[in-house]
Write a structure and sequence with these properties.
The protein has 152 residues and is an alpha+beta fold. It is built from three helices and eight strands. Strands 1, 2, 3, 4, 5, 6, 7 and 8 form an eight-stranded mixed sheet that branches.
């Protein structure tokens, strides 16, 4: 496979990852190497397909639905790495929907590192406080935004 074809396959697999996540499709694990690692904020790092599967179950216990705006992704390929920046929306089991368009914007950035066509490492950068339930930081952010806006 040429470098150009391999790069396109990596991009396709990164995008396919999001499609499978949105469908809660357990075959998402097929996109990973057996010894892959995954990082998610407040969860930490897991290793291997079993660890990634356990993360997916834990994540699924908090989320009813998630949808990534695949058509508007910004994708940056470079060698073995594909970076995907975008937006997501969803509903949590606690009943909240995100983003709220004020504090939560539904933005994320995923960094995929590939070995051949398979994901060897995935680092997910997003705010895991989807519904802005982290009261102290939500209060800080609101007061900070109000201070930036100045007097009414």
């Amino acid at each position: 496979m040429t470098d150009k074809l391999l790069q396109q396959q990596r991009i396709d697999n990164a995008v396919d990852y999001f499609r499978r996540v949105d469908r809660a499709d357990p075959t998402v694990l097929d996109l990973f190497t057996d010894d892959a690692t995954l990082y998610f904020p407040k969860f930490g790092e897991v290793r291997g397909k079993a660890g990634i599967g356990a993360f997916a179950q834990a994540f699924g216990s908090e989320i009813v639905a998630i949808e990534h705006d695949i058509e508007h992704f910004d994708i940056y390929p470079s060698g073995d790495v594909v970076v995907v920046e975008g937006r997501e929306k969803g509903h949590s089991r606690s009943g909240g929907a995100w983003p709220d368009g004020v504090l939560s914007q539904g933005r994320f950035c995923n960094v995929f590192v590939f070995e051949g066509e398979r994901i060897k490492k995935l680092s997910i950068y997003t705010d895991p406080d989807f519904n802005s339930d982290d009261a102290p930081r939500v209060a800080w952010a609101k007061s900070f935004r109000e201070a930036l806006a100045g007097p009414a």
